[in-house]
Amino acid sequence: MSESTQAWVVAGVRAVIGAHTQAQDAGRTDDIVALYTPDGVLELPGTDPLQGHDALRAAFKEWAPAKPQLHLVTNTVVTPSGEDEATATSDVAFLQRGETGWAVQVVGHYDDSLRRVDGTWLLTRRKTTYQV
Questions:
Q1: What average pLDDT does range 53-75 have in this prediction?
Q2: Residue 36 has what DSSP assignment?
Q3: Would the CA dihedral through 45, 61, 105, 75 be positive or negative?
Q4: Is the Cβ–Cβ distance between 123 and 40 less than 8 Å?
Q5: β-bridge partners, 17
Q6: What pLDDT sits at residue 5?
Q7: pTM value?
């Protein structure tokens, strides 16, 4: 893989991760779901995996923010496995604004698998772990 192709893959993957974060914090459920393949999977600690657009839509609709929130995603490392597949690992801090201001609610980690479908990068799997 050429250096320019690798840079293009990394940029595409990072754009999906950023779009997911911004859509989730704004409560834009359909925008989040559109970032997953039709059979995409979301794994969260303590729950059964959510698979497919219908399950993802129902979950993210239920999780729509009731008050201002931010997922701060950082330290993303993208590993291309070709021009059409990649994995990424990221650290995340979830903040919510309450009566006394912003506060970190949880810190965690994303393990993402992505695939390019018809020229668009999409998540095939996101596994979230929390750090205590």
A1: 97
A2: E
A3: positive
A4: yes
A5: none
A6: 81
A7: 0.94
> 123-126 long-range contacts, Cβ below 8 Å, gap at least 24?
123/16, 123/20, 123/35, 123/36, 123/37, 123/40, 124/36, 124/37, 124/39, 124/40, 124/41, 125/40, 125/41, 125/42, 125/43, 126/40, 126/41, 126/42, 126/43
Percent of the chain with pLDDT over 70: 99
In the three-class reduction of DSSP (H, G, I as helix; E, B as strand; rest coil), residue 43 is classed as strand
User: What string of DSSP letters covers 63-92?
Assistant: T--SS-EEEEEEEEEEEESSSSEEEEEEEE
SS3 content of the chain, % helix, strand, coil (to 5): 30, 50, 20
3-state secondary structure of 94: strand
Mean pLDDT of the chain: 96
User: Which residues contact residue 84 at a Cβ distance below 8 angstroms, ignoring those fewer than 6 apart?
Assistant: 115, 116
Question: Cα(25)–Cα(39) distance, rounded to whole angstroms?
Answer: 23
Q: How far apart are CA 17 and CA 112, in angstroms?
A: 9
Tokens of 120: 């668009």
List 36's β-bridge partners, or say none.
123
